[in-house]
Amino acid sequence: MNEKDTAILQHLVEEQSLTKAAERLYMTQPALTYRIQLLEREFGVPLIVKHAKGTYLTPEGEALAAYAKKTQDELNHMKDYLLNMRSRVKGTLRLGVASYYGLYKLPPLLKKFRDLYPEVHFSVTCALSPEIVDSLMEQEIHVGIVRGDYPWVESRFLLHDEPICLISKEPIDLAILPELPHIHYSEPKAKAARQVSSHFGQTIRAWWHEHYDTPPTIAMQVDAYETCKEMVKHGLGYSIVPGVFVSPEDGLYTLELKLKNGERIRRNTWMLYREPSLELAIVDRFVDFMKTEHPS
């Protein structure tokens, strides 16, 4: 059993589909099935069971997958430790990053860091912020970058904050806002086992209840801020989105939300990490680099 076998089992756990697991592994489905058959012969037990709704691991398969993941994690930690024993900034930095940050903010930063430390490689997982927090708790990643305020008892650093804005095609009267069609952002359901309610959604609800006694008139629900913006551009209603998604080139009416006391509502982007992980030179240098690139 090797690293490839471990990946096969993990992808089957996550996807519950031979086809989807094969796609993620860049394998053909027959090749994946053959490899599973070899594992079943090696361990002498059935590892998968096929149903009309998908492919699932048997109890024996689940036990083997959990063992393989634990073993692989321990091996990764040992590799990190050995590569950093002499304080050489070398090896693979494992990052979990909120999707927007990974798309727009992270690439130039990684390029700059790689220029400083050319022996560094990156493993970047883009996911929802709750999933990133879970990955960090399970020590599957070294550093997490999340949007919004999520429970985290260890080290954190504020990278930046941004306003939360109401956007519409034309200026609107806030007094009649509950009567107007609302393009509502609904956060995609996370795959993470430990669900954390959306801080963004809680913030919007708190603002709404402070200003209005009636609920908004929701015209449609979408799961991407960019989609919200496009709907607004076509005059289908107003929406409330983080300010980072709106630019003057969009040509939209934009209003930063404020509480009744005049305080502007902001959304934070945090870098989360564990203090013990700074013993690894690669993590220590990256955390310092990010703090330098985002002065408070």
Automatic annotation (TrEMBL):
Cited PROSITE patterns: HTH_LYSR
Q: Which Pfam families match?
A: HTH_1, LysR_substrate
Entry keywords, A to Z: DNA-binding, Transcription, Transcription regulation
The residues the entry assigns to the signal sequence are none
Q: Which InterPro entries match?
A: LysR_HTH_N, LysR_subst-bd, WH-like_DNA-bd_sf, WH_DNA-bd_sf
The record places domain HTH lysR-type at 1-58
Q: So which domain of life are we looking at?
A: Bacteria
Q: Which family does it belong to?
A: Belongs to the LysR transcriptional regulatory family.
Q: Kindly provide the name given to this protein in its UniProt entry.
A: HTH-type transcriptional regulator YraN
Q: Which organism is it from?
A: Paenibacillus cineris
